[in-house]
Amino acid sequence: MKLAGQVAVVVGGARGIGEAIAHLFSKEGANVVLVDLDKAKSQLDGVAQAINQRGGNAIALIADATDDAQVNNMVNEVLERHGKIDVLVNSAGLRGPLVPVQDITEEEWDLVLSVNLKAVFLCSRAVLKVMIKQKSGSIVSISGTAGKEGMALRGSLCAAKWGLLGLTQTIAKEAGPYGIRANIICPGGMDEPDLRVMYAERAKGLGMEFSQLEKSILELTPLRKYAKHEEVAKAALFLASSDSSHTTGESLNVSGGRLMN
User: Fold this and answer.
1) Whole-prediction pTM value?
2) Which of 16, 51, 64, 222 is the most buried (most CB within 10 A)?
3) How many CA atoms lie within 13 A of 188 on its CB side?
4) CA torsion 51→250→129→122, rounded to 10°?
């Protein structure tokens, strides 16, 4: 197993990509720590129970990753239980408003950057202190197409995700001498109901029909399909494990060919 005996903290593990990553990491032998907000507690507990019932080892912790004190308390609890942290997955995210830049409120801007960038900074900062002492570790953060191209009606999200790329490359350069790697995954559109709801809102904002927008996006995707959570999870496993032992500061596209740089 690729993560046998390792401790993996998955922030945003209650659903979606984070949930899929937690299940796969557990199958590969990791002790999984699921972290999410209190409002997602029932979902979070359900994921942990499913992993444990299958013979894995998972615990669920409640923490707001945008709050420094809660992040530090979470990391301390993980250390009390497991004594180390080998992998950090930053999977929490918030898409934000689907409006032109001039219509984004300051509150919306602050919230999007807080969830998508500040939270990654706080979690990475806390975990890096542990990993530097260990002289090992892997940080995997989830970005998306918004982290590599400007997109109409996605100003705050693009700003946050582009910032994530810069932060990750900086961590890779600073922490590399300690044997720590930091990488990003950039999924394309995910095969989930939330995506279609978002596309419908975005199409309305662009004055298009949903079918037109979806068709245009899929036409820009050579594989002509959306990404599945499990496909992103497999990319995360590659970056978390020794399979990518000489890879750091990279952004791995899982976009069906939509992104090729």
Assistant:
1) 0.94
2) 51
3) 22
4) -80
- Report the pLDDT averaged over residues 230-256: 97
Distance separating alpha carbons of residues 181 and 245, to the nearest angstrom: 8
Nearest to 162, CA basis, from 182, 148, 172: 148
Task: List, for residues 121-152, the tens digit of each pLDDT value.
Answer: 999 999 999 999 999 999 999 999 999 999 88
Question: What's the pLDDT band for 201 if we cut at 50, 70, 90?
Answer: confident
Question: How long is the chain?
Answer: 261
Residue range 83-99: average pLDDT? 96
Tell me the residue type at 152: A
Which 3-state string (H, E, C) describes 96-154?
A: CCCCCHHHCCHHHHHHHHHHHHHHHHHHHHHHHHHHHHHCCEEEEEECCHHHCCCCCCC
Listed in order, strand segments (DSSP E) in 155-250 are: 180-187
C-alpha distance from residue 54 to each of 77, 80, 193, 205 (Å): 24, 24, 27, 44
Which CATH number is 7-190+228-254 given?
Answer: 3.40.50.720
- Average pLDDT of the residues of the chain: 95
Report strand pairing: 57-62 vs 31-36. Answer: parallel
- Cα Rg of the chain (Å, integer): 18
pLDDT digits 0-9 by tens, 162-199: 999 999 999 999 999 999 999 999 998 877 877 777 77
Q: Where are the domains of the chain?
A: 7-190+228-254
